[in-house]
Write a structure and sequence with these properties.
Blueprint: E1 11-13, E2 16-18, H1 21-24, E3 32-38, H2 43-58, E4 62-68, H3 73-79, E5 86-91, E6 96-101, H4 106-117
Parallel strand pairs: 3-4
Antiparallel strand pairs: 1-2, 3-5, 5-6
Length: 118
C-alpha cells in the first residue's frame, strides 16, 4: 500500500519534500510522476518497473522515472530510502504525496495517482 509520508531531503515546502528535474535526473510529468528507486539485482524492481510503466502509459501527463539507488546514494539517504524498490508518487509540483517500499499492486498505484492528480 502506498502511504502518506515524506522524509528528509531536496527542497522543503511547508514540511513536505519537493523533487525536481535536478534531483530526478529527468523531467517530471505534467500531472504527476511515479519515481522508482531500484538496484541492479533486485527482482521485485523489474516487476515494479513494468507496473509503473503500464500505469504511466494509461494516465496522460504521468511520467515514470527510475533512479538507480546505488548511483544516487545522496538522494537515497536524504529521502530515508531503506530498500528497493521504493516508489514515490509526486504531484504536478513535485511534492511527495505517497510512498511505498516493496513491489506495489497496480490498483494501489492507480489509487495513489488519483490523490496526486486531484
Amino acid at each position: 500500500m502506498l502511504a502518506d509520508r515524506d522524509s528528509g531531503a531536496a527542497a522543503h515546502h511547508g514540511g513536505r519534500v519537493r523533487l525536481g528535474a535536478a534531483e530526478l535526473g529527468a523531467g517530471p510529468g505534467e500531472r504527476a510522476s511515479l519515481v522508482q528507486f531500484s538496484s541492479a539485482f533486485c527482482q521485485p524492481c523489474r516487476a515494479t518497473r513494468r507496473i509503473l510503466a503500464e500505469v504511466a502509459e494509461m494516465v496522460p501527463g504521468v511520467a515514470h522515472i527510475e533512479i538507480d539507488a546505488e548511483e544516487r546514494l545522496d538522494l537515497v539517504r536524504a529521502l530515508g530510502i531503506e530498500k528497493t524498490p521504493t516508489v514515490l508518487v509526486l504531484d504536478a509540483a513535485g511534492l511527495i504525496v505517497r510512498r511505498a517500499a516493496g513491489m506495489p499492486r497496480k490498483a494501489d498505484v492507480i489509487a495513489a495517482l488519483g490523490a496526486a492528480v486531484a
